[in-house]
Amino acid sequence: MKVLRNQKGFTLIELIIVIVVLGILAAVAIPKYVDMQTDAQAAADVGYIAGLRSVLAVNFAGQRLGKTVAAGTVCVNATGTVLPLF
């Protein structure tokens, strides 16, 4: 019979337990991450719409004050900020 020396390392059972725990964590975390991406996109869309509403409100107020504004003169930059071009 072989005598085991004081060997350093992990047993196969310990490695399997770690892999199982990582699998469980991944199974829980991945759907939450996907939901987070969907929520972030929805929030970005809401922000974009809010910016467009602001531009429309400024345009409407300008027209009420007698300022002439060309139709469709808005610029959306890379960050999603809507800027009036008048």
Set out the fold topology.
Blueprint: H1 12-64, E1 74-76, E2 82-84
Antiparallel strand pairs: 1-2
Description:
With 86 residues, the protein is mostly helical. It has one domain. The protein has one helix spanning 12-64; strands at 74-76, 82-84. A two-stranded antiparallel ribbon has the order 1-2. A hairpin with a 5-residue loop joins strand 1 (74-76) and strand 2 (82-84). The mean pLDDT is 80.
Question: What about the largest sheet?
Answer: 2 strands, antiparallel
Helix segment count?
1
> Beta-strand percentage?
5-15%
Number of domains: 1
Please tag this protein with its features.
2 strands; mainly alpha; 1 helix; single chain; 62% helix; two-stranded antiparallel ribbon; 86 residues
